Each structure stands twice: as structure tokens, then as C-alpha cells.
Amino acid sequence: PRIVCVAGARPNYMKIKPVMDALERRGAEVVLVHTGQHYDPAMNDVFFADLGIRPPDRFLGVGSGSHAEQTGRVMTAFEPLVAELSPDLVVVVGDINSTLACALVTAKAGPLLAHVEAGLRSRDWSMPEEVNRVATDRVSDYLLAPSPDAAENLRAEGYRDDQIHLVGNVMIDTLLANLERARASDVLGRYGLSRGGYGLVTLHRPANVDDPGVLAGLLKALGEIAGRCPLVLPVHPRAAGRLADIGVPGGVRLVEPAGYLDFIALQDSARVVLTDSGGVQEETTALGVPCVTLRDNTERPITVEEGTNVLAGRDPERIVATVHRVLDAPPAPRRPALWDGRASERIADVLLGGGTASTHPRPT
Ligand code: UD1
Ligand code: UDP
Questions:
Q1: I need a surface site. Which of 14, 63, 74, 133 has the fewest CB within 10 A?
Q2: Between 3.40.50.460, 3.10.20.310, 3.40.50.2000, 3.30.200.20, what CATH number should domain 185-328 receive?
């Protein structure tokens, strides 16, 4: 079969790579389509190099824009490509605008659609990603869930059991496959850091970085935490301008966005990670590193229930208190079932095993 695999932004690359490999190992013809949602070398090229992803077969070059502009541009560029390639199946990952745009096009164009990371729900409709997740799942034929809570969400929304496949977490496939190489990174030396001697921070959710007042509050909390544990913050381009305007407190060091191997190394050696990222909540759980999530909710509750994640919200005082508590008594690590490095093999089993994709029932 011919399978189009879609990627568009930083958190897509480490999810699509193992899926592509597993499909190709079983003889599928994979066409990698890059939408161009992220394009800076530090947000894009470094991941292709670090993860050994081949250059995209097709590049849509959509770039940045409002939600409607970006989603619309991806749709307009992807529609003729699907007509030209006439794939049997399209695979989308995650919850970004490119995911939804390609899902909508596919659902109307005819190929089957598989969503990797289906069923995650924050139940927070102010997050653009929640809209993307729910709408993508609704038009998908194959709902590939990373965890039992995600499968349960889908069942509760009325999806049929034969659409829901609990396969595990592909992001952890990539993490485990690259952990040794990441541990060989010299990033700690380059930044003058020692293992266990710093905290790692990422911030890029619109709710945290778009409003200067909210961001200033978070920075105040980081300044207090840095008094106990110095912090390093690889800056997402979305937050760069505002961080520079507000200025960061002493003890908080801004650095460039890190490449994949460097960032895994930075997480692995951190005393604590403070983040609003989805993927980082999962990677810290897999690595057993304490994680404090600077959000009121998470679409990844398994990282709290079984992993090392604690939700701290966005109130500065509560964040500081939570970090002190976590530093005093780090949570015990436990890696969720099926976060075992073999999720993409199970996905290939579902998509290519027993029977052809075309016999799969469509959504009702
Ligand atoms: C997007 C995803 C988000 C994901 C994040 C991962 C959506 C709605 N959001 O958010 O779910 O967690 O990627 O990092 O799809 N920019 C650059 N260079 C780049 C890319 C972006 O400078 O290579 C800047 C531009 O000013 C752009 C802004 O960042 O307007 C936001 O980029 P965009 O892709 O729209 O959303 P993200 O915040 O990156
Ligand atoms: N990541 C990275 N460098 C960074 C920040 C994150 O390589 O400076 C990686 C991280 O290890 C994870 C992924 O990017 O694999 C998460 O992407 P991001 O936080 O941008 O998006 P989200 O997961 O929130 O959608």
C-alpha cells in the first residue's frame, strides 16, 4: 500500500519517525509530507539530522499565520497532493494545526485516515490543540491511543471498539531508541551544567506566554525557584520576543531551542523539569525525572497517576510551593504499560497486519 505520513512541527518529528520506519520495514511505500508549519533550523532541521529522518518527499511550505490561515493553507496545498498521490492511507500524529488540516482533507478525499495519539483530552476548550484533537479523531478511521485513559475517552465519546487501538506511546519509541546517543551529548559541558545541578524549563502554550502579565508572573516564580536550583530555559520562538521584553530574573538562563538529543540529555540530567509541553510530560515520566507542569489541566493524566508529573497550575505562589515540595520528596518513577519502545510496531500491526486497510470500517 501507499501511505502518506504527515509532519509539520517540532513535536511531530519524533512521533512520525518510528511509524514510518515500522511501515517501511513491512514493505509499505511511505511518502513523507512536511507541511512547513515549523521552519527555523532549531525547530525543524536539527530534528531531521538528530533522528535520521530522510528529507521530506513533499514540502508544502505553509509557514506561520493565524489558525485559519495556517489550517487553510495546509488544506489547500494538501488536497491536490492527495489527488495526485492517491494514497491508500494517510497517517497524522499529535494535535497541531497541520494534523487537523490534513485529517479534514483526507476524510473528504477518500483515503483511510489513521490518527496516532488519538483520544487525549484536556477538556480545556481554550486550548487550540483540544479542538484539533477532538476534530481529528472524529474523522479518523484508525484511532491509535497511547494510553488506557485515551482509549477510555474514545469509548465514552461513542467510538466503536473496532476503531480504537491501544498501541502505546510512539514518542517513547523514539526516546528509548535514542537515549544512549543523547547521553553522549556534550550539552551539559557546553552550558556549564552538572548532572542533578539544575532545573530545565520550557514554556510555549499560548495561555502562558501570549499574555505579558501571565508570563511575568511565571517568571517571578522561576526567579524564586532559581534561588534554590538554577534554571535553564531553551526558548521557543513563540515566547522569545515577550521574554526579552519582560526580562528574566537572575538564576534563569535563556538558551536557544535545543536539538532533540541535547534536549533529552538536558531532561535526563535535570533535578526537576518545569514545563507546559505535552511531550515533555511524557518524556520525563519515561525517564523518571520529576516534572512540574505549569498548567491547570493535562491531556496526559497517566503521567500524573503513574509517572513523575505534578500539575502546579499557573499561580506563581502555588508553583513555587509545588516545586519545593517536589525537590524535597521527588515522586517515584513508574513507566506506563506499552511505553516500551514497541508502539510503532503495534501500529504497523494494526495498519498492515491481517487484511488490508481498505477493509477497515469507516466511522459511523
Ligand atoms: C505549535 C502547535 C502546538 C505545539 C507547538 C510545538 C498549533 C495550534 N500549535 O505551536 O500545539 O505544541 O507547535 O512547538 O498547531 N515561529 C518561528 N519559527 C518557527 C515556527 C514558529 O519563529 O519555525 C514563531 C512564529 O512567530 C509563529 C509562532 O512561533 O507565529 C507560533 O508558531 P505556530 O506553529 O503557529 O504555533 P506554536 O506556538 O509553535
Ligand atoms: N524538545 C526539544 N528541544 C526543546 C524543547 C523540546 O527537542 O528545546 C522536544 C522534546 O524533547 C519533545 C518535543 O520537543 O520530544 C516536545 O515538543 P513541544 O514541547 O514543542 O510540543 P508539545 O509536545 O507541547 O506539543
A1: 63
A2: 3.40.50.2000
Give the number of other CB atoms < 10 A from CB of residue 96. Answer: 27
Indicate the helix (H) or strand (E) that contains 73.
helix 67-85
- The complex's ipTM works out to 0.99
Instruction: Write down the pLDDT at residue 282.
Output: 98
Ligand 2: residue whose CA is nearest its atom 7: 260
Q: From the candidates 67, 115, 204, 236, which is the catalytic residue? A: 204
Query: pLDDT category, 353, cuts 50, 70, 90?
Result: confident
Q: What is the pLDDT of residues 236-258, one digit of tens each?
A: 999 999 999 999 999 999 999 99
What type of residue sits at position 91? V
pLDDT digits (tens, 9 = 90+) for 77-97: 999 999 999 999 999 999 999
How far is 170 from 17, CA to CA, in rounded Å? Answer: 9
| 2-169+339-359 CATH, one of 3.40.50.1980, 3.40.50.2000, 1.10.10.350, 3.30.70.260 | 3.40.50.2000
User: Look-up: residue for cell 495556517?
Assistant: 70
